[in-house]
Amino acid sequence: MHPMVKPALRRGWRDLHTVQFGMTPAHALTLGPVDTATGSFLDLLDGTRGLELLREEGRRMDLPDGHVDRLVRRLSRAGLLDDSRGGGPDADALREKREVLDRLRPDLAALTLTTSEPGEALGRLAARGSMRVQVRGAGRVGAVLAALLSGAGVGEVDVRDVGQVEPWDVAPGGLPAEAVGDRRDETARRVARRAAPDRPPPRTVRSPLGEAAPGFGLVVLAPRDDVAVHAPDPSAVEPLLASGTPHLHAGVVEGTGVVGPLVLPGETSCAGCLQEDRTDRDPTWPRLVAQWRSGRQRRVGACELTLATTVASLAAAHALAFLDGGVPSSAGARWEVSAPGLHWHARPVRAHPACPCGAADGGKEEHISADEGSHETMAAHGPSEGSRRKAGTKRPAGTWRAHV
Predict the structure, then answer these.
(1) Residue 24 lies in a domain
(2) For residue 134, what is the domain's CATH number?
(3) Contact, 140 vs 223, CB < 8 A?
(4) How far is residue 195 CA from its own chain's centroid?
(5) pLDDT (tens digit per residue) in 225-237
(6) Which residue segment(s) compose the domain that 241 sits in?
(7) Is 202 a member of any domain?
(8) Rg (CA), the chain
(9) How many domains is the chain partitioned into structurally?
(10) Are the CB atoms for 138 and 144 separated by under 8 Å?
(11) Is residue 281 assigned to a domain?
(12) What's this model's pTM, rounded to 2 decimal places?
């Protein structure tokens, strides 16, 4: 191990004997009391020295025997240490691709803030390279979302859609203006490949939109049709449920952006649960949906550029959180934001007993908090580590790991 204080956390001294790591309440921690020699020793935890060399440096600085090991353990337990050579074989391979890693360094720094084990962040970042994601829909939301996932290091991002690029599909970071008239799906795949730090070769997946997606760790449904965003058709995702493929809904409808639910088949609520719940609350719901789906389609729907980009970004963040091993807050909920107020709020989507997906019987939408352990003199500046983790959801061990 080559310990390194996570460089993403800025360091500052609250007083002569108390050092604070990090600025924001979500990640800031304080360490104290810290004597002058220990404070100087912290500068040596930069990833260039192994433990044996650090012990030698400690002896030269007249630190007590065992002090270096105790300090490293405390910092590691608090999630403040990284390992400059950790992460396993995939991480070693990524280190050898210097240009690729340089592109991903901001993402790596962000991952160090949400992981605790030294070397874990680079291991997760490297694991993204062997993951496969499919995005269904290549409009203003889907094409940008695909580029974001690819740019964040996901190894294969396939995009599926029909028709050709229209002028109103064009968006910064998404489908370019020069592609108007080209096939929409092929253009979106090219955009995703260009965004990749390690550009993969072109790959064509030929299967109808309604079929299952074998081998994909996640499918993101980002339809251009606003009715499909507002009222997802349960029959359209039946193959995904049958194959056990996790999928995430996202899109824009009439000035409202939607992200979620993230569906873990058999465990969390799905489009069918959403339909059943809405019908319980409003018996006329099926009649309205039938009219919306069969009525004359507007040529261009309301999909404001910045709102579409915001939805694409949040959906990509939820997708990456899942691919990295977590269960984001979109599992069992739809996050919505509407113009002009732009206040995000979550609408729970509960597993419905009448839905054949089975989530109401076997769902495990549980929130697991990590063991907070012994605090010693390490204290959180702001919410405790335990309370921060309770705000999210940790994926139950052995379930819903992305295909690699």
Answers:
(1) no
(2) 3.40.50.720
(3) no
(4) 17
(5) 999 999 999 999 9
(6) 129-362
(7) yes
(8) 24
(9) 1
(10) no
(11) yes
(12) 0.85
